[in-house]
């Protein structure tokens, strides 16, 4: 289902065990058909055409999810996106997405038969200069980086490597 070019398309919505039927549509997509709550696919959704600036959403986790505090996740319609080492190199946890990052979605016909990817500028923690030190001054040592995020439903289909949904948030 990720292979149809962006337009109006049907997207399966897979519920997590904890969310049951609480998944709700936004202004970017709507439910076409809601199936049984215990079904493998909770609903079929239709993505709606809209203002491209509103297509990408950046989310923060609940403060009780300690591992994700200070991190953000990318979502486009009902699809959550992730970073893969195949596109972004190793050490994905070193990437920092600035709060004012300009992100763009585009259809990539060459990605596993076609999928929409999200690209943008980020920062990467600079690992150089540490030598054998355990500590250094607290100022951030970062360098410019580009990110490319793929729909979570297509990750781990090109080559082995890291994957990251919750990206460090920068100022």
Secondary-structure element sequence?
EEEHEEEHEEEEEE
**Total DSSP E strands:** 12
What global shape is seen?
globular
Q: How many separate helices?
A: 2
Helix percentage:
under 10%
Strand content: 35-45%
Keywords:
six-stranded mixed beta barrel; 2 helices; mainly beta; single chain; 12 strands; 5% helix; 171 residues; three-stranded antiparallel sheet
Question: What do you see in this structure?
Answer:
- The two termini are 35 Å apart.
- The chain is globular and about 45 Å long.
- The chain is built from two helices and twelve strands.
- The chain has helices at 52-55, 85-88; strands at residues 10-13, 29-34, 43-47, 56-60, 71-76, 79-84, 95-98, 103-108, 115-125, 142-151, 163-164, 167-170.
- The protein has one domain (51-170).
- The longest helix is centred in the N-terminal third of the chain and has 4 residues, at 52-55.
- Helix content is 5%, strand content 40%.
- Mean pLDDT is 76; it is low at 3-9, 14-23 and 27-54.
- It is mainly beta.
- Strands 5-6-10-9-7-12 form a six-stranded mixed beta barrel. It has a three-stranded antiparallel sheet with strand order 1-3-2, with no helix packed on it.
């Amino acid at each position: 289902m990720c292979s149809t070019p962006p337009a109006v398309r049907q997207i399966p919505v897979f519920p997590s065990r904890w969310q049951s039927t609480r998944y709700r549509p936004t202004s970017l997509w709507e439910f076409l058909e809601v199936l049984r709550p215990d079904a493998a696919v909770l609903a079929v959704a239709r993505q709606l055409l809209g203002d491209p600036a509103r297509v990408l959403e950046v989310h923060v986790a609940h403060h009780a999810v300690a591992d994700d505090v200070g991190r953000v996740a990318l979502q486009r319609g009902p699809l959550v996106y992730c970073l893969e080492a195949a596109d972004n190199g190793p050490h994905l946890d070193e990437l920092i997405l600035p709060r004012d990052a300009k992100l763009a979605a585009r259809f990539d016909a060459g990605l596993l038969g076609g999928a929409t990817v999200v690209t943008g500028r980020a920062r990467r923690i600079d690992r150089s200069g540490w030598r054998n030190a355990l500590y250094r001054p607290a100022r951030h040592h970062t360098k410019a980086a580009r990110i490319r995020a793929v729909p979570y439903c297509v990750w781990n289909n090109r080559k082995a490597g890291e994957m990251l949904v919750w990206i460090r948030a920068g100022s």
